[in-house]
Amino acid sequence: MNASTNRKWMLTRRPVGLPKRSDFSFETAPVPEPADGQILVRTHYISLDPAMRGWMNDARSYVPPIPLGDVMRAGAVGEVVASRHPGWKAGDHAVGMFGVQDYAAADPAGVQRADPSLAPLPLFLSVLGMPGMTAYFGLLDIGNPQPGQTVVVSAASGAVGALVGQIARIKGARAVGLAGGPDKCAYVTGELGFDACIDYKNDDVGRGLTKNCPNGIDVYFDNVGGDILDLCLARLARRARVIICGAISQYNNTGPVKGPANYLSLLVNNARMEGFVVFNYAARYGEGARDMATWLGEGRLKSREDIVDGIETFPETLLKLFSGENFGKLMIKAV
Ligand SMILES: NC(=O)c1ccc[n+]([C@@H]2O[C@H](COP(=O)([O-])OP(=O)(O)OC[C@H]3O[C@@H](n4cnc5c(N)ncnc54)[C@H](OP(=O)(O)O)[C@@H]3O)[C@@H](O)[C@H]2O)c1
User: Fold this and answer.
1) Distance, CA of 257 to CA of 67 (rounded, Å)
2) Distance between Cα 156 and ligand 1 center (Å)
3) Burial class for 214, CB neighbours closer than 10 Å (0-12, 13-18, 19+)
4) Is 267 helix (H, G, I), strand (E, B) or coil?
5) DSSP codes of every residue in 307-325
6) Which of 163, 248, 305 to mutate to test the pocket of ligand 1 (most atoms within 8 A of CB)?
7) In angstroms, rounded to a whole number, what is the distance separating the alpha carbons of residues 115 and 281?
8) 217: alpha, beta or left? (left if phi > 0; alpha if psi -120 to 50)
9) Which residue segments constitute the domains of the chain, with CATH numbers given?
10) pLDDT digits (tens, 9 = 90+) for 40-71
11) Cβ 223 vs Cβ 158: under 8 Å
12) Which residue, by CA, sits nearest to atom 37 of ligand 1?
């Protein structure tokens, strides 16, 4: 790559079902000039997140859809290479929505600092970044797990799920994960210390939940939706909290989203179900990052990153999230 060119992935078509390479175009342009008040960031790691699929749709959501012809929206961490903002200088490191591209000229409002002397840069996209804050605030603020209670989390080996179970354990709760395949389950119980993990691709999920949650589920942190949400609803304890974090099993549906048939379990168990968007906690990220960094430093929290080389792989690498081929927080190493 030439230091004067910017390679970028543009969204050119709204995908139907799983995104395809032909829904994007890979373009080369001159490196942008930062305007007055902006910084120019060289991206080093680009975060690939299930939410990107929703941002491609022309539908009302918590953020506007990506306009066709725009750079594909993505979080990233990189180095400031030029600054026209008094608060930033070349050599600083920054985390923000810089997009799937080599360089971004960005307004620093909403951009956070990353200190590579505190942690390797990829961790600012995982445990110390958006997935970390999602696990922390979703579980603690909405789920409020108590010692001895049972927390169930789906996509348990992934960026958010792995942290949810570990935080649940730190708070004295039991953690039961659901993950696809024996390797992921072995990691969830062996490395991450969950009390149990159900291999939803090979085992009977209902039976696994009944066996591992003998007093019912106090907190279900849902990352997948669909059938697994229904099976968990059917096993709630009294006053359970169901946290709707995501529904990855539904994101590429071409038909209607599968809703929960067993929702009356909320009624009979005096339970509640609540969704959330992590960005609503932005004002409290400092608090979350402090606790997560402390637990990481104490060795009580483990983080795993799945780093794929090369921005040119973007469309195929993104699909790993939906096939379950990623193992840990998925990101692209740009340089
Ligand atoms: N509410 C928020 O603010 C917020 C913020 C961040 C993330 N999220 C949500 O959190 C969830 C997890 O995100 P992440 O970044 O941590 O991703 P991730 O778990 O690192 O990766 C996605 C995983 O989802 C699982 N999966 C894929 N298709 C599935 C299906 N059809 N049924 C069941 N599991 C499936 C796969 O794991 P297996 O191999 O185990 O199947 C895959 O590895 C997503 O739903 C995402 O949208 C929400």
Assistant:
1) 24
2) 9
3) exposed
4) helix
5) EEE-GGGHHHHHHHHHHT-
6) 248
7) 21
8) beta
9) 5-126+303-333 (3.90.180.10), 130-279 (3.40.50.720)
10) 999 999 999 999 999 999 999 999 999 999 99
11) yes
12) 324
Q: How many other CB atoms are there within 10 angstroms of residue 333's CB atom?
A: 17
8's tokens: 């970028």
Closest CA to 221 of 124, 150, 290: 150
What's the pLDDT band for 4 if we cut at 50, 70, 90?
Answer: confident
Q: Pick the residue whose CA is nearest to atom 36 on ligand 1.
A: 324
Question: What does the alpha-carbon distance between residue 36 and residue 41 come to, in Å, rounded to a whole number?
Answer: 14
Q: 206-233: per-residue pLDDT in tens?
A: 999 999 999 999 999 999 999 999 999 9
Estimate to the nearest angstrom the gap between the alpha carbon of 112 and the chain centroid.
17
Ligand 1 nearest atom to the CA of residue 247, by list position: 45
Closest by CA position to 53, among listed 4, 97, 11: 11
CA of 42 from ligand 1 middle (Å) equals: 28
| Residue listed under structure tokens 């085992």 | 203
User: Could you tell me how many helices (H) and strands (E) the chain has, helices first?
Assistant: 9, 15
AA letter at 9:
W
